[in-house]
Amino acid sequence: MKDVNAFPRFLASILLLGLLLVSTQPLAVAQVAQDALSKNDVIKLLKGKVSPERIQQLVKQKGIEFPITSDTEDELRKAGATESLVALLRDLAPKSTTLIVTATPGGAQVFVDDELIARTSPQGRLKISTIAAGRHTVRVSLEGYREYETTVDLQVARPAEVSANLERNTQPSAIIAQPETRVPSTRLGATVTGSSDLSTSGKITIGFTVSKTGLLNVDSLEQYRGFELWRDEVNAAGDVRAGGKSYRIEFVSYDDESNVKAVQQLYSRMILQDNVDFLFSPYSSPLTASAAIVTEQYGKIMLTTGAAEGRTYTLGNRYLFQMFAPATEYLSSVLDALKTRDPNAPIAFVYEDASFSSAVVDPANAYARQVGMNVVFSEKYAPNTVDFSAIIDKVTASKATVLLGGGHYSDGAMLSRQLHGRRVDPWRTSRKPARTPAFIRCISRSTSKVAMGEVGKVGVRLTP
After folding, report:
1. Among 7, 124, 251, 290, which one is most buried in terms of CB atoms within 10 A?
2. Binned average pLDDT, 10 residues per bin, the chain of 464 residues
3. Which CATH number is 189-324 given?
4. Cβ neighbours around 81 below 10 Å, total
5. pTM metric for this prediction
């Protein structure tokens, strides 16, 4: 007798098998893009516990759409990338280069592949860094002038230049007094739009980006909460008073995704479209250096609040004002206090092998030796280190009673836990980025012997 239900059962079994196969795939794999992988896609895979071998297969199949820089490599390693995966990504990455646009007159808008990048400076110059190699359409536009458009073929490590001598548009405009088109702020994720006319607006609009996502989000969000606290206290106390008038503080902010390229685009947007009055820096020295290219170009004042690496302030920037102590001074107050309390204490320096950590600890190491303190051990650890047992053995062998250095939240907390687990409990300090409530809660459970260097002083008077 023919089983009339055989096919439906067969079809159901096939569907069930498909569901089982899908359900056994890592969630992170199912969530990545179908096209070339973005940096966030790769990080999502790494954090989703997908095996390095599987990630390498995906990378080879799909390719990647982001350039590889030293900062990108550090982000990937912190997310769990192996050196073989980093090397593969480096080989497959679209190679970047530099495009310099000069336009006469200055102040023209520059579009690359129909995306607004920024305006040229008043002198007519714009430098676009880390643009992908390949063919691009460049358009230069200025009200009252004919647009200039050209196609350029950019090659890796060979900066190219586009020069546009704009001609006046002699044809009468078909539209009279047409207001500037602005992208709705809700679509862009902005919290509020601002005005550049302080005399009539009654408010001061400050723009900045926050790393609400990406590897810098923990520290960046703590900085953002500090901004909010300041704004709320100032407004509650009666606003800012200047020239006999009161001005309320309002913010414009975007998520920069911990991405250098996004920072330049967003700071250009805040200046050109949101008309902010002043700017705060993003969190971290690399992101701030990227934002400074834009703020210097437009002559906008930017206060840096989470960027202490000295190199940022040696590039001739005129509109950049540092609010924190330089990275080179982060540990000097701790060393001064230690010298007063216990000048012969054996000191060990342990810190991440990254540019900012080195900018903090290397000068501190040199200063300690200069003033005659007893440095018995110094060693860097690789980014993304999770097992500190080898370094802890060396610190123990050195008989250090003071441990200086550390890193950001994840490695600082991990090191504190492992020191406590091994019953190695010297006095130790952490540089500023790890000073988050989460970090403090962590170390309070593992030790009571932690000091933190100061990054600012109350009542200090500064002169230009």
Report:
1. 290
2. 48 40 39 63 84 85 77 84 87 79 89 78 84 84 87 82 88 35 32 44 90 85 90 89 88 92 91 93 89 89 86 80 82 87 91 84 91 93 85 90 77 78 62 46 48 52 49
3. 3.40.50.2300
4. 24
5. 0.51
